[in-house]
Amino acid sequence: MKVKAIVLLVLCSVVLMCSFCVFAQSNSEVIHLNMVVPATGIPNQIVDSSDDYSVGFQRQEDGTIRLTYYDHDLMKLDYYKTFSHSGFVERGEGGICPIVQGDTVFLIKVGVVDAGESTGSFIEKFDTRTNEGDSISLSDNYTIDLSSGIAFDGTDLYFVRLKVKIDNGFVYEAALCKTNFREGVVQEIYSFPYAYNEKYSIYGAYNDLILLQKMTIPYFQNDESFFLDLEHTSFSLIPFSVNKNILVEPIKEWENGETSTAVKENLLYSILNNKIICNDMVKGTEQTVTIVNNTNDSYDYVLTGSIFDDHAMAYAIKDDTIVGYGGIDLHNGQYQKVDLMYFDSDGVDYPTTIISETNDKFLVMCGAEYISLTKTFADGSEYTYERRVEKYGLIEKSNYWNSINDIQMFEDQLTY
Fold first, then answer.
1. Where do the domains of the chain lie, and which CATH numbers do they carry?
2. What percent of the chain has pLDDT over 90?
3. 41: left (phi over 0), alpha (psi -120 to 50) or beta
4. 77-90: per-residue pLDDT in tens?
């Protein structure tokens, strides 16, 4: 696989080095934003965790989805603690994901808008101690972009909302929005300029700033055809001030294949000539850490955009081919290859990837299989299809970095 294609696939890249700005903060309101969904989004993630428990889903026989509680001590579902507030999610189509923040769980349900049919989208917030919470529903022609990151200010979520045509499902409007559970509404903060070859997503968050990534795909056309030039896709990182409600000048701009990036709070990491460059977007400082390989081979590296346990997750590349997966220690540059793999039912082996972390463990996706599901249409007709279902477990951080296969699999299968 070509390095440029790898960079575009994970939407990591960066960077034509340019000067950094230090942004003045407004004193009108103290806002401290952090990311609760990474820049890569969670289009297929159906589980999230805290130190003591994980939240997941199980599909019921009637096609509905049940939100469930996984106890880390028991390593199985504790049905006595199943969250009764949400009960059954009406339909499983679209997308569904939980976000765990201490004793608060957010449930995001993305509806389907296609060929005149809509299942609706909503966001719920509730307290796991009391089972009390609130819900916000989106109108039928709006949905939530799960390929974008999501930020949190301690009370409400910030996300990208898409407006779609009911008859064909095409997106024709996008906006940065936040929940307002006090009034039970979604509040639009900023409407993005729309173009069919551009996409905005949430890439990072710190202080009162949301770091937006703008992706632009060049195109050309003739009288009969329209072509997107994916190889020359360009990217830029643009801060948005929640306090001031304005976009700030772009702080990074690059083209596909030049480099790759990852963000943790106010720290932006980019890779250039096998060196990790860390820019502090608040202080305006820059540090460089040289990547240290454990072997005698010379690798190139592509960051996936995720950071766990102070390691930037990355693919190792040799002769334009992926030869390894692991993490780069952001303190000393040591590349730690991870050899924990699982074989899918399609015969392909995949690396065991981290979903989230606790103080001493990783929640990992460590297996998958295909199950048959049936969709019933409004006219009563049915369609049977296969869905890939991931398997999850917990592993000690030290065991993960040392490729010791000591994963504690959840006893009950998560099926969405």
1. 30-257 (2.120.10)
2. 27
3. left
4. 665 455 544 444 55
